[in-house]
Write a structure and sequence with these properties.
With about 130 residues, this protein is α/β, with parallel strands linked by helices. Helix content is about 40%, strand content about 20%.
Length: about 130
């Protein structure tokens, strides 16, 4: 009989719902077109051939990371060096930032700042470079 009660409760209530790992869309920072344009313009000014994924742009905005022109140049050079070695996905250490970069498409996938670096594990990379 106890098994029947548990079965009925499970059917009515269902399994426990776990909270979503993603914040609700309203809580996520919204990337404004001017920011993406600003980033693209800054890259063009210094001859940087890098792109920033939507996720990377969100991280830069939400963590209030200020990327300078010389830093964009250093990222570009670092990607050149790992590309020459045949890397496909690289960890680029830049000052107090860590960037995961898709080397073939020259795309910054994510950006992690110093406070978020503690006890962080980076996987699925085949190269690391200090820029």
């Amino acid at each position: 009989m106890a098994g029947t009660v548990e079965r009925v409760l499970a059917e009515r209530v269902g399994p426990p719902q776990l909270p979503s790992q993603q914040p609700p869309a309203a809580a996520r920072p919204r990337i404004e077109a001017p920011f993406a344009e600003h980033l693209r313009h800054a890259c063009e000014e210094v001859g940087c051939r890098m792109e920033f994924s939507g996720h990377a742009q969100e991280r830069v905005v939400s963590r209030e990371i200020d990327l300078k022109a010389e830093q964009l140049t250093r990222i570009d050079r670092a990607v050149d060096s790992v590309a020459a070695k045949g890397a496909r996905r690289a960890l680029v250490m830049l000052d107090d930032l860590a960037l995961i970069v898709g080397v073939e498409r020259r795309t910054v996938i994510t950006v992690v700042d110093a406070p978020a670096l503690r006890e962080n594990v980076f996987t699925s990379i085949d190269a690391a470079v200090i820029a």
